[in-house]
Amino acid sequence: MSVAKPPSDLAKVWDLPKAVCPVGSIGHRWDPYDQHAMYKVLGEARQSEPVFYSPELDYWVVTRYDDVMSILRNPSVFSAANANTPVAPVPQEALSILDEGGYALEGIQVNCDPPRHDRIRTHVSQAMGMKRLMALEPHIVRNVELGIKNLQGKNRVDILKDFIYEFPARVIFSLLDIPESDAAQVKAWAMDRALMSFTHSSKNKQIDGARNLVEFWNYCVKHVQKKMLNPGDDYVSDLLAVRDGDDDKLTLNEINSAAFGLLFAGHETTTNQSTHLLNALLSGDGLWQQLVDEPSLIPLAVEEGLRMYGAVANWRRRAVEDVTIGGMDIPAGSGIVISFAAANRDPEMFEDPDEFRLDRKNVRKHLTFGNGLHFCMGAPLARLEMKLLFQTMTREFPNMKLAADEEIDFVRAFGFRAPKSLWVDLQG
Q1: Residue 141: is it exposed, middle or buried by C-beta count within 10 angstroms (0-12/13-18/19+)?
Q2: pTM, to two decimals
Q3: Which of 68, 134, 340, 345 shows the smallest number of beta carbons within 10 Å?
Q4: Comparing 7-21, 85-99, 114-128, which segment has the lowest mean pLDDT?
């Protein structure tokens, strides 16, 4: 008997209640895609209008730490089902391309609610345990050293493009047993998926993105099929072993979706986060030299970078009933942006929140990896990757400096802070 293919996760349209942005509200001047002004405007909101309506996104934006935490901790009232829903409707032409191409990605983790979420996470965690993640350390070190070798003899480089861009992807490829030669193509596919969910793209770009997503999806499906025939020591093989032919544990399409999800999100955020941290350290007065002199401070620097310059700036939830947040009444069905960027700089939680400090005792209370049911399963791996990356860079390039007169530009997306380049002088 044939099983109906689930509808594309990009086709979901929510019936949102009407909302009006009050005159004088910060919502009128908040540009959710302006990464340069983001912290300033959200900081003003956190102080004077901690929950505001954004007509640009048609979402309510929550900025204070305690309010964001309460949402993360209450999945029965705040659904995660809209976490990856496109902010603009996807045209029918693009949806037809996805449907005809067999694209069948399911929401299984970040955009999935209990009880389904609990079932999937329970079984997926067996394949994503600390033992497997920590076993990647030699591979991480090898990739860092290879990247450093490719930089030898150079001075001014775009270190994002020439080093950091593909490094985390190659780590994930080791976890999935995928050829490293496919790194550039997978990174391009992942960016298409991010742009379709987190920015207003033109119709033509969405159609092109749909074609690329079909290729990406089918690449993942074929990889799962290959592992069914020839299992190995890797994440997908472990998921198949956990499933053991039992759809009540995991279906094959859920494993396809898990492979796709890891290839999509398992490296992009680490690429962006590493670039933000390097920029912060080279911009700060003496911060890079502190790490050169005291490498033991690197794990603290990683956490402070996650707090101050989190690659995941804003995330989403949907109110399933009428709620009051920060004194604002919000009707059932409303979309909600939980702003990690704002919450991570809340002075009620973090002293001197706009200062990069290596002695911050409560730094790991940041929310960049989320909290509660949806806390990022890949957080230990991301932390390990960045620690090893910066241990090597501070040792090999102690005099590194930002290139003069170079400014960072960002991909136009409201959920992620994705820099386009970072030019440095390796030898100072």
Answers
A1: middle
A2: 0.93
A3: 134
A4: 7-21
Question: What is the total residue count of the chain?
Answer: 428
Q: Which long-range contacts link 235-244 to residues 24+ away (Cβ below 8 Å)?
A: 235/127, 235/128, 235/132, 235/175, 235/176, 235/177, 235/259, 235/262, 236/176, 236/177, 237/177, 238/126, 238/127, 238/132, 239/123, 239/124, 239/127, 241/127, 242/123, 242/124, 242/126, 242/127, 243/123
Cβ atoms of 359 and 365 closer than 8 Å:
no
Domains belonging to the chain, first-starting first, are: 26-425 (1.10.630.10)
Tell me the one-letter amino acid at 260.
Answer: F
For the segment 320-344, the average pLDDT, to the nearest whole number, is 96
What are the E-state strand segments in 139-181?
156-158
Distant-in-sequence, close-in-space partners of 49: CB < 8 Å, separation ≥ 6: 25, 26
Mean pLDDT of the chain: 91
- The model's pLDDT over 285-307, given as tens digits with 9 standing for 90+, comes to 899 999 999 999 999 999 999 99
Q: With bands split at pLDDT 50, 70 and 90, how would you rate the model's confidence at 14? A: low
CA distance 244 to 238: 10
Exposure class string for 192-209: b at 16+ Cβ within 10 A, else e: bbbbbbbbbbeeeebbeb
User: Side chain identity at 299, as an amino acid letter?
Assistant: P
Stated as kind and residue range, the H or E segment containing 337 is: strand 335-339
Match 């991480």 to its residue by tokens.
140
Q: Which two tokens stand for residue 310?
A: 């989190």
